[in-house]
Design goal:
Helices cover 67% and strands 5% of the residues. By secondary structure, the chain is mostly helical.
Length: 406
């Protein structure tokens, strides 16, 4: 019973702090609106994630594979809006177009390209890129490499199948199977698979939907401002310890665990209340879609609130003064927010920083929220939910143990 009284007391104190409420509720909404509008181009929601560019193409191959690459793969439904083909009569004309800036990148498909790929010989495709437009060159190289590797793999499978058929029928009696017809059928089916343009599309989201800038920053700002509860909860305990309120409470017959868990619960419920307000405000004011499954969103919010509240207990046990908590709030939370992707999407970070971000609970929460927005299944959330709960439980146990021992 005492636990709930202490929790409710802390919540009432937070609700009476108008300046704190404005910071906890109004600021994330303002930043969501500003960043969502200003950085919408980073997400490029309407046209996908690839920039549009022009490709000068010389198609010198007389076989099927070169024609399929130039006319079907590069002009597939998935790439037609991204790539504009500029036909060239010679390889030199392609190079000239790139040098003069008429094309962003060039592609030379040499004579005999089909024979090279299907016989396993080295492929002599040339991608000519403008020195100032390396990204388009990398994109085209990736598409072409994907296509040639796929065709080569299919050709190898085709040769292996025909060799196996020939070996199995070499010693048979009676009417021999028509190897020529088998070869024609196998080649037809495997070549169709190799030329399928959709197989050359680059990356696709894990879920069913893409995430807009406004969606991303609604989650990012909510995660960042909920993280401040870790330092605010710690400051509450540090203040009561400095005024000896906490020591007087601990000297009463009430169990120490009830008092400390009451502090934890107060921070937990305020964090949940804060998220609920931000969720509803972004949903109905900005039209942010948080995902198809409300249960997933609430589960992540709950586990993240547990992690943040647990950290408040650990910080209270480690820090010695409210001033130290202010430093952590001003510097530590901001560092975690930047590292966790609240300012710039994690996908824009180098691999090393993306791995380093996993030490922060806000990165796990933000990634989970954006995954939910794309439409992932529950199985994809089990790991982050477990990590957040583990962080909260470990920090809570450490904090209550240290505080109770003092």
């Amino acid at each position: 019973m005492k636990l709930w009284e202490i929790a409710w007391k802390d919540i009432r104190i937070r609700l009476r702090d108008r300046k704190g409420l404005l910071s906890a509720l109004l600021m994330p909404l303002l930043l969501t609106a500003i960043l969502g509008a200003a950085l919408g181009g980073v997400f490029n929601q309407e046209e996908g994630t690839l920039p549009s560019f022009e490709v000068a193409v010389y198609q010198g191959d007389e076989g099927r594979m070169g024609k399929a690459l130039a006319e079907e793969v590069l002009q597939s439904d998935a790439l037609r809006k991204t790539i504009t083909i500029l036909p060239a009569d010679t390889a030199a004309a392609v190079e000239q177009s790139v040098k003069e800036g008429q094309a962003d990148v060039g592609l030379v498909i040499p004579p005999g390209f089909t024979a090279q790929v299907t016989t396993g010989r080295p492929v002599e495709l040339a991608v000519l890129q403008n020195p100032g437009k390396e990204q388009t060159g990398l994109i085209l190289t990736s598409i072409v490499k994907s296509y040639t590797e796929r065709v080569a793999a299919v050709s190898s499978a085709q040769a292996a199948i025909l060799a196996d058929v020939a070996q199995r029928t070499a010693g048979t009696t009676g009417a021999a199977p028509n190897i020529g017809q088998i070869a024609q059928d196998v080649i037809g089916e495997l070549t169709a698979a190799a030329e399928a343009p959709n197989a050359a599309v680059l990356e696709k989201p894990v879920g069913k939907h893409e995430v807009s800038a406004k969606q991303y920053y609604a989650a990012a700002m909510a995660v960042m401002f909920l993280l401040f509860n870790a330092t605010i909860g710690a400051k509450s305990i540090l203040n009561e310890r400095a005024t000896e309120t906490l020591s007087r409470m601990l000297s009463t017959p009430t169990a120490k665990s009830s008092i400390l868990l009451g502090k934890f619960t107060g921070t937990l419920f305020f964090a949940l209340l804060q998220f609920g307000v931000l969720f509803l405000a972004t949903k109905y004011l900005f039209g942010v879609a948080w995902g198809d499954d409300l249960g997933q969103t609430l589960a992540v919010a709950g586990c993240y609130a547990v992690a943040v509240s647990g950290l408040s207990m650990a910080l209270a046990a480690i820090l010695r003064s409210e001033q130290a908590a202010d430093v952590v709030s001003g510097v530590g939370v901001q560092i975690c927010s930047v590292l966790g992707g609240s300012m710039v999407p994690l996908s824009q970070f180098p691999d090393l920083l993306q791995k380093a971000a996993l030490v922060t609970p806000n990165a796990w929460a933000l990634t989970s929220f954006t995954d939910i927005m794309t439409g992932v299944a529950w199985q994809a959330l089990f790991l982050p939910l477990g990590v957040l709960l583990a962080i909260g439980a470990a920090a809570l146990c450490f904090g209550t143990w240290r505080l109770a021992a003092r």
